[in-house]
Design a protein that fits this description.
There is one protein chain. The chain has 141 residues and is α+β, with helices and mostly antiparallel strands. It has one domain: Alpha-Beta Plaits (2-Layer Sandwich), CATH 3.30.70.141. It has a 4-stranded antiparallel beta sheet with strand order 2-3-1-4. The chain starts with a strand and ends in a 9-residue tail after the last helix. The structure holds ribavirin triphosphate and magnesium ion (MG). The site of ribavirin triphosphate has 10 residues, from strand 4. Ribavirin triphosphate binds next to strand 4.
């Protein structure tokens, strides 16, 4: 498996419940390394730009409102197969369908307030990391 980087966002619902540490702990326990991180209040423009691929979907407005409802914790994670590993740790988009023990099963309330975002491909991971971090802000040990 290749060494990869992926973008993770701990969404406003999970930040509001003081779950940043618990969720980062799961990434670290699974062998993913935090190589960039920041807490940020997204502007409407930033949230719309980030989720631009979904702009024609019926849930786009609600998704943007939710993503700007409070601060988010944004990280670049690095590790072997990091993109799929993060998606596996997150669980299904709808927490009701997420496997037991996944982040969404344990921390998410609904398909809208679903605790975390994770890049879904290598191409999107590169785009999403560059969307939030300058190259000098991503550090490999
Ligand atoms: P994410 O991008 O946030 O990591 O989530 P995902 O890949 O599992 O899901 P995606 O299809 O990319 O959708 C992005 C976010 O939009 C919200 N959503 N709502 N009401 C709905 O049917 C619906 N579908 C998606 C979710 O909050 C999802 O995380
Ligand atoms: Mg997605």
């Amino acid at each position: 498996m290749a060494l990869e980087r992926t973008l993770s966002i701990i969404k406003p619902d999970a930040v509001a419940k003081n779950a940043i540490g618990a969720i980062v702990g799961r990434f670290e326990a699974a062998g993913l390394k935090v190589v960039a991180a920041k807490l940020k209040q997204l502007s409407r423009k930033e949230a719309e730009g980030f989720y631009a691929v979904h702009k024609e979907r019926p849930f786009f407005g609600a998704l943007v409102e939710f993503m700007i409802s409070g601060p988010v914790f944004i990280q670049a994670l690095e590790g072997e197969g990091a993109i799929q590993k993060n998606r596996d740790l997150m669980g299904a988009t709808d927490p009701k369908k997420a496997d037991k023990g996944t982040i969404r099963a344990d921390f998410a309330e609904s398909i809208d307030a679903n605790a975390v975002h994770g890049s879904d491909s290598a191409e999107n991971a590169a785009i999403e990391i560059a969307y939030f971090f300058a190259t000098t802000e991503v550090v490999s040990a």
